[in-house]
UniProtKB/TrEMBL annotation:
This is lytic cellulose monooxygenase (C4-dehydrogenating). It comes from Cephalotrichum gorgonifer. It is an enzyme of class 1 (oxidoreductase). Residues 328-343 have a biased composition (Basic and acidic residues). Its cofactor is Cu(2+). One of its GO terms (cellular component) is extracellular region. Residues 312-327 have a biased composition (Low complexity). Belongs to the polysaccharide monooxygenase AA9 family. GO terms for biological process: cellulose catabolic process. Residues 291-311 have a biased composition (Acidic residues). The keyword Nucleotide-binding does not apply. Residues 1-23 form the signal peptide. Its EC number is 1.14.99.56.
């Protein structure tokens, strides 16, 4: 009898230890901030608890059902497929509709202040739908890499993430060609990285359907060729070395030349969306400057946006700011709205606008309609802190 009781007690002990030892976090969603705008549309990502729902929901985040304990990928797995998008990751069912030039605010469920290190963001073109892509064939190019924000105060990128409502911003470069992309977002925690094998990589992936007027297709690298467990930046004595000397690991030349650092700020979620199935790049029309017609409003996509409260939607003629833009033209043309100016001004919260996003994938044209309505949306989970940090780190 004693033996029988000892087994469950022992299991409980192991589980408790595991939760104490691995109380870090997961990237559980993201919001898209249109270029020049202030409010973001939030898309739910994956959480390992979803595997117990029947059926599991379709989300824009890659599935990581083996990550039930919020753990990490160890340097011993740097050449394993697990380093690509976390343990046993499989592609997301849905994609986030994004226009090149938008900012993405990636949200974590939690993150400890002690887990300092670099945050690295990269994209890989699926060259077709991402739902059935072979992740080991994906070639990622970096669009953001940050580590030490302020050496004197030992302020690292993940500390800024925590202070900004557990959100990290990345800019989707204007120059990339349209397509379905995997966004790989990774924090490398260095609190135990004084010796080989102690670093902790936390990569998470999302699928983006990117409309763009750009044509760049950076070559990129497979993540399994990316890190060396003994390289400086993976091995780093966080407590014995000066933050000013830190070097971000991975090939420095894998940063896309058109990458622009996003300004880190407090998130402002004004709407939620569910994602689209995929972007049919082959069906996109040729670029014609005279294109003015809108396609028929035929709904053939899962994309929809909802506000959190009933809203009063004015007719199009009453909404002077309403716009409809085809992929033939950039959604915003004001260069003054690009980057710093718009982004360094923290948006007031709660916002008093909501955004409805619609798409018509089947017709080959993607149309985003923005309708501004006067409703108040209360944001709590994603809008909890007051620090605004601007990251303008020079690229190596
Ligand atoms: Cu941890």
């Amino acid at each position: 009898m004693v033996l029988i009781r000892a087994v469950p007690v022992g299991l409980v002990g192991v589980l408790l230890f595991a939760f104490r030892a691995h109380a870090h976090g997961i990237a559980d969603g993201l919001a898209v901030y249109p270029k020049g705008g202030s409010g973001g549309t939030y898309y739910k990502g994956y959480n390992p608890s979803m595997q117990f729902q029947s059926p599991p929901p379709d989300v824009v985040g890659w599935s990581t059902p083996d990550d039930l304990q919020n753990t990490f990928v160890a340097p011993s797995a740097f050449s394993s497929p697990d380093i690509i998008c976390h343990l046993g990751a499989t592609p997301a069912a849905l994609a986030v509709p994004v226009t090149a030039g938008d900012d993405i605010g990636i949200h974590w469920d939690t993150w400890p202040d002690s887990h300092k290190g670099p945050i690295i963001d990269s994209l890989a073109n699926c060259h077709g739908p991402c739902q059935d892509v072979d992740k080991t064939k994906l070639k990622f190019f970096e669009i953001g890499r940050e580590a030490v924000i302020n050496a004197a105060s030992d302020l690292w990128a993940p500390n800024v993430l925590i202070q900004n409502g557990l959100t990290w911003f990345v800019h989707i470069p204007e120059g990339i060609e349209p397509g379905n992309y995997v966004l790989r977002h990774e924090i490398i925690a260095l609190h135990a990285a004084g010796g080989v094998g102690g670093a902790q990589n936390y990569p998470f992936c999302f699928t983006l359907a990117v409309t763009s007027a750009g044509s760049d297709s950076p070559e990129g690298l497979g993540v399994q060729e990316y890190y060396d467990e003994a390289e400086v930046g993976i091995v780093w004595d966080l407590f014995g070395k000066s933050p000013a000397d830190y070097v971000i690991p991975g090939p420095a030349n894998n940063l896309y030349s058109g990458a622009v650092a996003a300004s880190q700020r407090k998130p402002s979620i004004t709407a939620t969306g569910t994602g689209i199935v995929t972007l049919d790049v082959a069906a996109l029309p040729e670029k014609t400057p005279t294109e003015t017609e809108e396609p028929a409003a035929e709904e053939t996509t899962a994309e929809e946006a909802t506000t959190e409260e009933p809203v009063e939607v004015p007719s199009p003629t009453e909404a002077p700011e309403a716009e409809a833009t085809t992929v033939d033209e950039p959604r915003e043309t004001s260069s003054a709205a690009e980057g710093k100016e718009a982004m360094e001004t923290p948006p007031a919260a709660p916002e008093e606008t909501s955004k409805a996003v619609g798409g018509d994938i089947g017709a080959g044209l993607v149309v985003y309609s923005t309708i501004y309505v006067t409703t108040r949306v209360t944001v709590t989970e994603h809008n909890t802190t007051t620090l605004y940090a601007t990251v303008t780190t020079a690229r190596p």
